[in-house]
Fold this protein.
Amino acid sequence: MNLAASYLGLDLPSPLVASAGPMTQTADRVKRLAEAGVGAIVLPSLFEEQIRAEADRDERLAEVGIDSFGEATSYLPDPGASLWPRQYLSLIERAVAAAAVPVIASLNGSTAGGWTDYARAMQDAGAAAIELNVYYLSGDLPSPSLVSGRDAEQRYIDVLTAVKAAVSIPVAVKLSPYFSSLGEMALRLDRAGADGLILFNRFMQTDIDPATLTISTGFKLSSPAEATLPRSWIARLRGQLGGSLAASTGVETADDVAAYLLAGADVVMTTSALLRHGPGHATALLDGLTAWMRGKEFGSLAEFRGMLAAAVGTQEAYGRRGYLSAVERATQAYAPG
Ligand SMILES: Cc1cc2nc3c(=O)[nH]c(=O)nc-3n(C[C@H](O)[C@H](O)[C@H](O)COP(=O)(O)O)c2cc1C
């Protein structure tokens, strides 16, 4: 069975990509994922704040003339479980050496500024592409300077443009679904040079526990029900962009992978399922995909990728007409007798 895929102009042995998260944080796990069949690996994000903090530290050290590494590290905030810039570059080098598939570095920030030049160091360390996660929470209240929707969107374009100027490798943008006009935003990013879009990023959800009177922040693992939103947008955007489309969110089984490919994704990413079941789950997903393709008599991805995009991407299914008939059907199904 031919599972070869193309993403960001890169040739991949399979369409399954291990997305950013703890599973891709060590070279050893990256190696296991590649052996399990993933077509590419996205490393966890390096954050704008970390790059800025390390640059500030270097500046202060240069002023006081400290060059011993042990002393120097005490000038950085506690790194916790995340990787700092120099460790990150070392991870790229080790991951590239360990895996025979493209290794994609991830940058996470929200302002255009000197930190975006770090993309160049990632390229030099061997990254095959950059994934850009513009995690920007607009509308922080109260604020003396509320940001308009257009200005919030412009940040994405500005950060993308700055990163594109720093590198020659492909740059993909990981998007959130929270735009007033997502289709237009996708087209703007595509025209601004994004080599691909990843649909979607998941925002941190802050919650409140009335029992303990505490606030929790954090990431929960996803469920397959969350895949319908990215899947419908992939179907809508299929054929509209020059760049690639990657699906992210809610992959648990091989059917979830097949559904994303039918909607028009070039690659399908997974984080939660790999964390739940381990790196070997990649093999199970790909074996399941192969069995499904055999059952449907498809010999390659090209034979069915995007096959249902036209059908689900129309006004019929997702516009107001589709909405109206869905409400009618649901009313018939659920109305109390
Ligand atoms: C624990 C955890 C850490 C994550 N870290 C990152 C990250 O560093 N950068 C990023 O862009 N996405 C990160 N993500 C998001 C995932 O890459 C992915 O987009 C999201 O979990 C949806 O995919 P899934 O349903 O397969 O989990 C993280 C997700 C989890 C659960």
Observations:
- DSSP finds 14 helices and twelve strands in the chain.
